[in-house]
Specification:
about 210 residues, alpha+beta, Immunoglobulin-like, nine-stranded antiparallel β-sheet, 4 helices, about 25% helix, globular, disordered N terminus
Length: about 210
């Protein structure tokens, strides 16, 4: 009886996996093999470190960005966990953007401009993620983004950049505002890469616990 029960569980799991794989191959939207492996969801991660070309006196921030999106048209969820901002004085808003190149050879300066596949003015780029206010030197929050991990517009392999200032959201009245939001120098950056689900699952649980405590 135990053997039959185990075979039923294994068979059910296999059917779920096969259904997910069938979904992967039966759509016009290309999907990485990890989508089948993780039941129709793709996970990605980005380990944020201070820019190696950073000017002295700026915060040495670090942390990670975790991303999760259901295939093929789910909303992209982005979990932010940053540390290293000043803990004294009024906290400054910090802008976060996805940049064009996953190139850190010259620190964050070699990541290019904002990822802007449609040639739009800022803040209408898919990687314009907005402003975030540190609390006790940390930014721990979750957002939804118009960016995607799928199709030819995928942000996999591109860079995320945290800036020293707030994003003026295109309202600054000058060319820089429509290009990059006048968000200032680049504090930290990382390259977005496909990851297993465990980092998201673990950190999402910690995030929800923190919300319940507050």
């Amino acid at each position: 009886m135990l053997l039959h029960g185990s075979m039923f569980v294994l068979g059910s799991a296999l059917l779920v996996q096969l259904a997910g794989c069938q979904q992967c191959v039966s759509t016009d939207t290309p999907a990485p093999p990890e989508v089948c492996r993780y039941n129709g969801t793709l996970y990605a991660a980005c380990t944020m470190k201070p820019s190696t070309s950073q000017t002295e006196g700026l915060p040495k921030m670090y942390g990670q960005v975790l991303l999760k999106q259901d295939y093929p048209h789910g909303k992209l969820n982005v979990l932010l966990q940053f540390n290293g901002f000043p803990t004294e004085g009024d906290p400054e808003l910090r802008a976060l953007h996805i940049h064009q190149y996953g190139d850190l050879s010259q620190g964050c300066d070699s990541t290019g401009g904002h990822y802007n596949p449609h040639g739009e003015n800022h803040p209408n780029h898919p990687g314009d993620l907005g402003n975030f206010e540190p609390h006790e030197g940390k930014i721990h929050t979750m957002i939804e983004s118009e960016a995607t991990l799928f199709t030819e517009l995928s942000v996999i392999g591109r860079a995320m950049v945290v800036h020293e200032k707030m994003d003026d959201l295109g309202r600054g009245g000058d060319g820089g505002s429509l290009l990059h939001g006048n968000a200032g120098r680049r504090l930290g950056c990382c390259i977005i890469g496909i990851s297993p689900p465990e980092p998201w699952i673990m950190n999402y649980k910690l995030y929800t616990r923190r919300l319940r405590r507050n």
